[in-house]
Amino acid sequence: MNNPVESVRLKKDCFETAKTQLGYSLSNQDIFIKWISEHEKLLRHIINGFEAKPAIQEELFQEIALNIWRALPNFRADSAVKTFIARIAHNVLATHVAKAVKTVKTESSNDVSTTDSVADNDVALCQQPTPYQSLNQQQKQQRLAQAIRQLKLEQQQVITLALEGMSYQDIADVLAISTNLVGVRLQRAKAKLMQLLEAL
């Protein structure tokens, strides 16, 4: 993961790119930076569920941030900012997965790299886990992320949003599907995830 200084630099770089390309006002800059700062962890967790390679994860984060910037003037506050941002992220990631699948199908090579990035260790500072506990937590997060990446796209979408604590209604709003369909997809995703985790 990026250190805080690098993260701020990347956010500024992303803003400068968007400002140059689209010519938005500075008032939008404040809103954009606030949204990205508040929802960076959510975005990174969602991206990690779709892509294993850190360099590509960073590219996807930048692409999502740019799409959020472009969509900012269209935000009508008819949904929560978190839902709005997650919808944009899922649109970008769905396109990324579709391109990756198409590329894999057109290539004759069966060699697939399965390099995993290290997931965030969300242990509170006051708890001070032992190195063994930290390693165990990281391994669990890596296994979970690896298993999620093996799910179908529709299952990846619902499970990553559910793991971020989103309600069925929020997930339905992000994916533009019914809450009943969210429940069905989530049940199937959980069952498949259990099988995959047992196999890892």
Q: Can you characterise this structure?
A:
- The chain has helices at about 5-20, 25-50, 55-70, 80-105, 130-150, 155-165, 170-175, 180-200.
- The chain has about 200 residues and is mainly α.
- The protein folds into two domains: about 1-115, Rna Polymerase Sigma Factor, Chain: A (Orthogonal Bundle); about 125-200, Winged helix-like DNA-binding domain superfamily/Winged helix DNA-binding domain (Arc Repressor Mutant, subunit A), CATH 1.10.10.
- It starts with a helix and ends with a helix.
Q: What is the helix fraction of residues, given as a range?
A: over 70%
C-alpha end-to-end distance: 24 Å
CATH H-level name of the largest domain... which superfamily? Answer: RNA polymerase sigma factor, region 2, helix turn helix motif
Strand composition percent = under 5%
The counted number of beta strands is: 0
Instruction: Outline the biggest β-sheet.
Output: none
Continuous helix count = 8
CATH topology of the largest domain: Rna Polymerase Sigma Factor, Chain: A
Oligomer: single chain
Number of domains: 2
**Helix vs. strand class:** mainly alpha
Q: What's the helix-strand series? A: HHHHHHHH
Stretches with pLDDT under 50, minimum 5 residues: 108-126
CATH architecture call of the largest domain: Orthogonal Bundle
Nearest-angstrom radius of gyration? 18 Å
Shape: globular
In CATH's first tier, which class of the largest domain applies? Mainly Alpha
- Mean pLDDT rating: 78
